[in-house]
């Protein structure tokens, strides 16, 4: 049986050659390719500084630390995301304060943020979920009014824009992530973007074991640090992908449009829409089952598709209902009803740049017949 996978990276001979070439050099970490990747990325993202690290999670963790978020502080965030956007707050023993989502955009509901602000609130960490930009105007306005920092988790939104400005350019600091299912990949990797030289210096130093950024000695450590470095091998992959980024995004958008056209009007399905004034770059292609379907039925549909070789997934299971969060914080069903209702009905379909039309047709046909 032919398998149609959920995601697949778009790697060509250009990337393969770049990796082979760097392997012929003596510098496999902290070399010129890191600088080149960061320089190119900052330019692409329209930010002053880019600090490349070994994952999106590491990038978020360093931002939380660099912004001085500490034990007992509260950070307002969304429960409808990948777990890392909340775990990064826990790493510093701060508290994620969840706010339910907007049913249309699936992003944090900005109308519900202010009621959750307390004296302990230090930041808002918003996510551009599935590449759909959050309501940045409102988030920045609330943050300014209450003197809060803004962390932009754009891990899924490379190439998206909000009112003409690219995602990743709004917060005090932002991240993109480069796991192989993302719009571009370095295998594993992430990047911090900021215009603040202090945040840049702190993140760069912490990513490299707390060494001084300039004129430091290898065995001198001026602050608590980590090994969150991105190797030269990953950086050349990133450079090659970044040079092709318009092509990568175009191909992704083409596949999304094909799904849109074939699934439009299908009974039992709701297609996700980009919010007004935004341009969405697709991370995953997610459809929502209509409210008549239960979580169990959604699970059955995914299992039956899997039996036919079609790999789908439940993007996202809400963070507050993850076993660890339930146990540690006592969250329960009903705490964030909109996020839960959406999360119970979403299905991510196979989605990648080189998904063939006939495979996409197979997915659509199988899904329709199960509905
Ligand atoms: C919204 C969001 N934040 C953070 C991350 C973490 O990135 P990484 O897997 O590179 O650690 C991801 C990755 O899937 C993500 O989707």
UniProtKB/TrEMBL annotation:
Highest taxon of the lineage: Bacteria
Gene Ontology BP, a term: polysaccharide biosynthetic process
GO molecular function per UniProt: pyridoxal phosphate binding; transaminase activity
Keyword vocabulary terms for this entry: Pyridoxal phosphate
Catalytic residues of the enzyme: 182
Short name of any one Pfam family annotated for the protein: DegT_DnrJ_EryC1
PTM sites of type N6-(pyridoxal phosphate)lysine: 182
Family: Belongs to the DegT/DnrJ/EryC1 family.
Name of the protein described by the UniProt record: Polysaccharide biosynthesis protein
């Amino acid at each position: 049986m032919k398998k149609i996978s959920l995601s697949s990276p778009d790697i060509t001979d250009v990337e393969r050659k770049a990796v082979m070439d760097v392997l012929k050099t003596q510098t496999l970490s902290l070399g010129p390719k890191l600088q080149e990747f960061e320089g190119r990325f900052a330019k692409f993202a329209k930010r002053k500084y880019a600090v490349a690290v070994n994952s999106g999670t590491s990038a978020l963790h360093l931002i939380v630390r660099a912004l001085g978020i500490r034990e007992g502080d509260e950070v307002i965030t969304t429960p409808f995301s990948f777990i890392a956007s909340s775990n990064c707050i826990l790493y510093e023993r701060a508290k994620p304060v969840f706010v339910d989502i907007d049913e249309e955009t699936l992003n944090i509901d900005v109308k519900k943020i202010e009621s959750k602000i307390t004296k302990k609130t230090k930041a808002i960490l918003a996510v551009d979920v599935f590449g759909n930009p959050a309501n940045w105007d409102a988030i920045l306005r609330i943050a300014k009014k209450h003197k809060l920092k803004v962390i932009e988790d754009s891990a899924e939104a490379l190439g998206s824009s909000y009112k003409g400005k690219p995602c990743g350019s709004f917060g005090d600091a932002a991240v993109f992530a480069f796991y192989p299912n993302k719009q571009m990949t370095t295998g594993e990797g992430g990047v911090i973007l900021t215009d603040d030289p202090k945040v840049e210096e702190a993140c760069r130093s912490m990513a490299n074991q707390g060494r001084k950024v300039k004129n430091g000695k290898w065995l001198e450590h001026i602050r608590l640090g980590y090994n969150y470095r991105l190797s030269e091998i990953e950086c050349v992959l990133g450079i090659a992908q970044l040079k092709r980024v318009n092509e990568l995004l175009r191909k992704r958008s083409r596949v999304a449009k094909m799904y849109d056209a074939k699934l439009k009007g299908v009974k039992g399905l709701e297609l996700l829409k980009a919010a007004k004034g935004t341009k969405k770059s697709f991370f995953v292609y997610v459809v929502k089952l209509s409210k008549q379907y239960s979580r169990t039925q959604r699970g059955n549909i995914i299992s039956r598709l899997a039996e036919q070789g079609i790999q789908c997934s439940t993007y996202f299971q809400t963070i507050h209902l993850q076993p660890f969060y339930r146990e540690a914080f006592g969250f329960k069903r009903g705490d964030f009803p909109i996020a839960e209702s959406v999360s119970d009905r979403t299905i991510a379909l196979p989605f990648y740049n080189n998904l063939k039309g006939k495979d996409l047709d197979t997915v659509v046909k199988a899904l329709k017949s199960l509905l």
